[in-house]
Structures are given as C-alpha cells and as structure tokens.
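Suppose a colleague, Dr. K., hands you the sequence of a protein chain of 159 amino acids and asks what its three-dimensional shape might be. Before reaching for any lab equipment, you can write down a predicted structure in token form. Begin with the sequence itself:
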Amino acid sequence: MKIIEYKPTPQKKRAIRKIFKQSPEMFSKEDLEVIEKRLSEKSELDYKKYVAMDNNKILGFISYAQPWDTKTIWFLSWFAVDKYHQGKGIGTSLLKYIENQIRRSSSPRLYIETVSHDDKLTKNTRKFYKNQGYKRVGLIPHYYNNNVAKLIYYKDLSQ
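The predicted structure, expressed as tokens, is then:
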C-alpha cells in the first residue's frame, strides 16, 4: 500500500464516493454533497488530500486544512477507509501520514470532529482516535439533532 496525493479523475472520485457511502451513519446526504464538491474543486481553504492505494485501488481517503480564521491549528476534514479493508492499518497509516506533515509545520496541532452516535462504527471511530493519542476536548450537545452531539478530539503533535 502507498499513500499519494489525491489528483481528481472520474475513476478516483467514484471510488472515494463509494467509500463514504458505505457509512451512512457517519456521513449524511448533505455530507456526501460537500465531499463531492471538495473532490472536484479548489475551495477557499487549501485542503490537502491523500489516498491510500494498493494495486491501483483506492482503499482510503483523508483530507485536512487550516481553518480560515486561524493558522495555529489544523483540522481533519474528511477521512474514511473502505469497509472491506478496515482493521488492516490503512486508517492508521493515513492519519500518521498527515500527522507527520503537520508536525513539520509551524502549527503542529490537529483537531478532529465526529458524532456521538452509539452504533458500532462510530464507537469504533472514537476508540480509534483515542488509540491514536487524541484526547476528547469538547462536546456540543444536540449539534446534529436532539440526540446527536458533536465530539471534538485534539492532539498536540509537537510532543
């Protein structure tokens, strides 16, 4: 497996869309529309995008950027691994890859937002972030709806 910078092609966009659609409990219809735009265009933020590939097949996707209002931190914007390849270290490799890039920047900090659903996938996602050394630093109740909060995880990569 190798990690390379994402360069848009119709085939790559289809493969990435398919990966995100595998997790409707994590990515809403609205999320998928935003992802579609981000895969195709330059936005106001300089999103850095990477794919994990093996034998010309995309196994995962990750992107990150700095918020428009600060240059002291980075945020993970979109991250998913093909469900048939989860648990094989692909997500860890993608996350470590961008952490190493961020670590070399003048602002080596990363935050991640996720949801508080109680299903197996989102519980595993939160466990994954904790296992990677991220600390939960925030919770916004009722953010997505009356039953679903936004959770915020953080890691100082300078340490």
